[in-house]
Amino acid sequence: MSIFVIEVCMNIIAFIPARGGSKSIPLKNIKRFYGKPLIAWSIKAACKSKHIDRIIVSTDSEKIAKVARKYGAETPFLRPAKLAGDKISAEPVIKHAIRWLNDNEGYKTDAIVLLMPPNPFRQTFHIDQAIEIFKKKKVDSVVSVNETPPNHTPFWTLVRSKSSKVTLYGGKSIKNILPQRQAFPYKCYGRNDIVYVFKPKNLYQKKPNLYGDKVELIETDPIYEVDINTSEDWLDAEIKFKRILKKSKS
User: Fold this and answer.
1) In the 8-state DSSP scheme, what is residue 229?
2) Cα separation of 120 and 243, whole Å?
3) 207 Cβ partners below 8 Å, 6+ apart?
């Protein structure tokens, strides 16, 4: 007897926030990185995904919007100035976008894929794997991470109190520091902003967030981790990108 698995159809939208007011690198999101505007790499990865229905870029800049459309994204609105400051978190920006799509197009999404444009190393397989985990595990969110280097974990992190006393993170005596990383009770992970997949309802909790209550992690190869915010970051990323290209060819 044959068994057929029916996959529930979901509306999945990729969301790329790209404000125009970068201070360290003016119009960073459309500065050319290896022959393409920086934001184009995120759009390109999303366009190749087999799960994503729409790619929305939220920006306050018509210049960025024009470039985004050229590479295959939609820019149905310009982000209001009050949501374009450098201290605005992702949650209100995404809420504005999904509210606009619902009010103006009657469009509702079942899942949001957040792609931060300062990472041009992101690959389509990262996106598809995260979405597939999201569907299979039926979680509120999937977050991409790398394992934290030992010296950056709470087990080996030192802090100085207001009274200048040095302790381990959490207040434990430094005399109790674990001698080897193999003795750590569990692994620690750091977010790398390669991909987030989450339910829209997370944005409407008492404290709006990307994660919800049930979170799954997708651990990625550290070679794909980058966050371009300064000119030095940009130069380092160009060097590292050569390794990415070599890896993809092999």
Assistant:
1) -
2) 13
3) none
Q: Which H or E run contains 217?
A: strand 215-219
**Residue whose pair of structure tokens reads 């949650």 in the numeric block:** 91
CB of 115 within 8 A of CB of 14? yes
What SS3 state is found at 58? strand
In this prediction, what percent of the chain has a pLDDT beyond 90? Answer: 87
Would you say residue 114 has pLDDT above 70? yes
Domain locations along the chain:
12-145+189-249, 149-186
Task: Give per-residue pLDDT as tens, 217-249.
Answer: 999 999 999 999 999 999 999 999 988 888 777
Selection from 144, 158, 140, 132 nearest residue 198 by Cα: 140
Q: Cα(121)–Cα(116) distance, rounded to whole angstroms?
A: 11
Contact yes or no for 121/226 (Cβ under 8 A)? yes
**Burial of residue 179, with CB atoms counted within 10 A of its CB: 0-12 exposed, 13-18 middle, 19 or more buried:** exposed
Which of 3.30.565.10, 3.90.1150.10, 3.40.50.300, 3.90.550.10 is the CATH number of 12-145+189-249? 3.90.550.10
CB 118 within 8 A of CB 164: no
Q: What is the dihedral of CA 154, 155, 156, 158, to 10 degrees?
A: 60
Tell how far CA 85 is from the center of its chain: 19
